[in-house]
Amino acid sequence: xxxxxxxxxxxxxxxxxxxxxxxxxxxxxxxxxxxxxxxxxxxxxxxxxxxxxxxxxxxxxxxxxxxxxxxxxxxxxxxxxxxxxxxxxxxxxxxxxxxxxxxxxxxxxxxxxxxxxxxxxxxxxxxxxxxxxxxxxxxxxxxxxxxxxxxxxxxxxxxxxxxxxxxxxxxxxxxxxxxxxxxxxxxxxxxxxxxxxxxxxxxxxxxxxxx
Amino acid sequence: xxxxxxxxxxxxxxxxxxxxxxxxxxxxxxxxxxxxxxxxxxxxxxxxxxxxxxxxxxxxxxxxxxxxxxxxxxxxxxxxxxxxxxxxxxxxxxxxxxxxxxxxxxxxxxxxxxxxxxxxxxxxxxxxxxxxxxxxxxxxxxxxxxxxxxxxxxxxxxxxxxxxxxxxxxxxxxxxxxxxxxxxxxxxxxxxxxxxxxxxxxxxxxxxxxxxxxxxxxxxxxxxxxxxxx
Lengths: 211, 230
Fold this sequence. Notes:
The structure holds 2 protein chains of 2 kinds. Chain A is an alpha+beta fold. Helices cover 31% and strands 24% of the residues of chain A. Chain A has 5 helices and 9 strands; from the N terminus they run αααααβββββββββ. Chain A has helices spanning 7-13, 24-39, 51-63, 66-75, 88-107; strands at 119-127, 134-138, 151-152, 158-166, 168-176, 180-182, 189-191, 197-204, 207-209. In chain A, β7 (189-191) and β8 form a beta hairpin. Chain A is flat. Chain A starts with 6 loop residues before the first helix and ends with a strand. Chain B has helices spanning 2-19, 23-32, 38-53, 59-70, 75-98, 106-118, 122-131, 138-151, 155-167, 172-176, 178-187, 192-203, 218-221. Helices cover 70% and strands 0% of the residues of chain B. The longest helix of chain B is centred in the middle third of the chain and has 24 residues, at 75-98. Residues 11-23 and 203-230 of chain B have low confidence and may be disordered. Chain B has 13 helices and no strands. Chain B is globular and about 55 Å long. By secondary structure, chain B is mainly α. Classes of the chains: A alpha+beta, B mainly alpha. The interface between A and B is large, with 54 and 47 residues.
């Protein structure tokens, strides 16, 4: 159990202040703190002679544990003789299958090289002065309400985050305190199909737009 | 015997992914398992398999399921929302095909479904897809239309505004700026419809793709979203 002292009491214990320097209402607490400090046993600690033996015994037990022995077995190099009996047609078939796999991989059409960036950064802002936690969830993060927390900018209740989202139109909503789904008041909204509203934003190659 | 089994396994491993496109459905289940109740996984997996079999994108269905689960929505409502979305994807693809796009991209189909969800109808989607040719990707124009509608611009007026810009030869990036321009006017007190009307009136007259000088400070007003990239 720990006890928190006033800063002045801590300075008293550090020797920076004397009891006379404390405010009258703090003196009783200061005296109590000094008594506790004085009661601490500051005698040199003497280790029992058997301590070394006990420590070494514990180390030896750990070194010889079954897990460690198993690891040594697994890690130690050893000679292995592998003998296979195969039919020639099976070897031929396997070779053909591997060759076919390579051909298919090589013949697979290459993914098109994107002509431009396919992601954009979108900044989300919500004014929520009473919120303890704000996140944003939407089609860009699989509606995971824990994936994108907003950060309070200060004491003015403004929460912000900037996310990298795939180019395209996205629907989203803020989640306040893990429970309340709030549409972005600064963005257009659409029916979410569940009786609420989703906000929409488009991330386009030139940057995010209200789209 | 073991070698023979090995050869068979290798050959099957090479061939089966190409013969069994239904493996994608396993991916759906894998994406959902652990995040949504098992009965939802089973039902949505069936819906997704059906959608994939008809050539519809399944990613929106997965996202809607994850969203519903994250929001704590009861399983039956999640499934209902996924069914509705699958229906919209189908309706969107039909509208795109009616517009003369025989094989619309998954992004376009999804964009059309989002537009339907935002309040546009199938005719709007079809009409917008018809004028989205050349440099104008229907997936993008549908997203713009969705956002304009979400801002409160009446669907027909939003479509007219976009059509004017396309006919005036404005670039795709100019279309992308439309929602921002509407929001700037709204920040100055105009309704969404008024903002769209004002932009439509001046849509063919402006030569520069930049937003009009009559709306200073718009960068600051839209600072909540990112404006930089890699």
